[in-house]
Amino acid sequence: MQSPYEGRLIRLRAREREDEALLYQWFNDPEVTEFLSMRYPLSHAQERAFIESASEISYGKASFAVETLADSRLIGGVGLERTSPENRSAVLGIALGDKTYWDSGYGTDTMRAICRFGFEMMNLHRIELEVFEENRRAIAVYERVGFAVEGCRRDAQFKFGRYTNSLVMGLLEGELIGHKE
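Given the sequence above, the corresponding structure tokens read:
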């Protein structure tokens, strides 16, 4: 049986205090946060508070650190939040902060692992996310694992002096592509 926390390349795990320095570095890097809704610098105290709140994983907030299987290196974070038991749905957020792992399959593997976890362990029926329309690399990953564009929120985000559209994408139970690889 495959671990509900592992993909082919990554493992989902709880966040630890030791993760703070890397998270602080990543989420104060404009290249990492370019397509995230974050726009203000984060302090060490904010990162420590985030880790403390995110370390209590539950149905309401299944938030994980993402580490490589090969060497247990922290490369980012992913989570299912704003869950609705009545609708069996959640909102997905992902950020791979270690840029050396971009464009190498780690994002795709992370998406498959968190969606599989959501469907098989949390009994979700629907997972949705929002993505900046110009974030083509992320959109390609989301489509590769089965997400479909369901709508466009026009001028939904203001960042870098301009408005940008935000796409709403969704994945239903049974639509995950490549989850048994």
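Residues 4 and 121 are 7 Å apart (CA to CA). Try to locate this feature in the token string yourself.
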